[in-house]
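Need a sequence for this fold. Nothing fancy.
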């Protein structure tokens, strides 16, 4: 049976600034999943968070694709991917399984560098620990994983999302979460996937999937993912911004301490939660240099 879903019209994605990448699609369970596939070489997988989509990485893709094959999927509910309209459809397991199927079955990627931020962390780190034979390196930016009591800033965000529901305006949320001023056409780019309330169910659901206690439905899997990187001996770059009220320098140090293969935490100056938006070109060059080394 077809999952009830919304498909954003293609014209919503025409002429977005910095977004000239050809759309590519695979089908999963009757739903269309979108991804960008640029460049050649060892693959670099870019995983976005909430409420963004592949557009978040537009400043990074050209530099990375000059030396690597860059894959940037949109989760179901985001970007150019189909958007299930039933809240119950969304879960941490389902988001992970979508990426797992794309990487391991449909694209059959190996020697992958996984780049994560925000919700990309729980999804991408799970891919690394469940499929270490496919993942060669990690780049970890402004994220966390596990089940623990949330901070006040995050609780305010969750309460805000519950209050506004599907009236949320994704572009404005990104705008207020950046250190730099976004132009109106960039804000429009973040809004492009979500023209009607039923297109925003996935955005509304992501905060509900965060494991804030041990009995949360996401908790067991997230705790497992948090514990297993202690055996990750391969290289990992932990790169956090200096002005994120949710993921602070202390979060960065804790993340690096989890992973034996991680070097010292590196900081991106002048960037907030969406550091790819604030300092995307700089981050891409730092990743390219790290991979070359």
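Here you go.
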């Amino acid at each position: 049976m077809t999952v009830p879903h919304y498909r954003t019209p293609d014209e919503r994605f025409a002429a977005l600034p910095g977004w000239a990448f050809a759309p590519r699609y695979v089908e999963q369970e009757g739903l269309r999943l979108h991804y960008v596939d640029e460049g050649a070489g060892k693959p670099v997988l870019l995983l976005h968070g909430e409420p963004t989509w592949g557009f978040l990485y537009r400043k990074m893709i050209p530099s990375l694709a000059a030396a690597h094959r860059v894959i940037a999927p949109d989760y179901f509910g985001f970007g150019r991917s189909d958007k299930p309209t039933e809240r119950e459809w969304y879960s941490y397991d389902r988001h992970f399984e979508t990426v797992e199927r794309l990487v391991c079955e449909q694209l059959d990627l190996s020697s992958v560098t996984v780049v994560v931020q925000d919700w990309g962390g729980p999804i991408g780190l799970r891919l690394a620990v469940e499929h270490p034979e496919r993942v060669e390196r990690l780049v970890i930016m402004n994220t966390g994983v596990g089940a623990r009591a949330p901070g006040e800033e995050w609780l305010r965000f969750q309460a805000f999302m519950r209050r506004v529901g599907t009236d949320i305006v994704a572009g404005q949320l990104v705008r207020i979460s950046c250190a730099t001023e976004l132009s109106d056409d960039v804000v429009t780019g973040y809004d492009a996937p979500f023209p009607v309330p039923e297109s925003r169910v996935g955005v509304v659901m992501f905060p509900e999937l965060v494991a804030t206690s041990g009995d949360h439905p996401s908790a067991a899997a997230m705790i497992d993912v948090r514990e297993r990187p202690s055996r990750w001996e391969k290289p990992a770059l932990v790169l956090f911004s200096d002005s994120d009220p949710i993921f602070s320098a202390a979060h960065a140090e804790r993340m690096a301490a989890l992973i034996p293969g991680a070097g010292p935490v590196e900081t991106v100056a002048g960037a907030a939660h969406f550091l790819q938006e604030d300092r995307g070109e700089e981050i891409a060059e730092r990743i390219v240099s790290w991979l070359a080394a």
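For context: The chain is about 35% helix and 15% strand.
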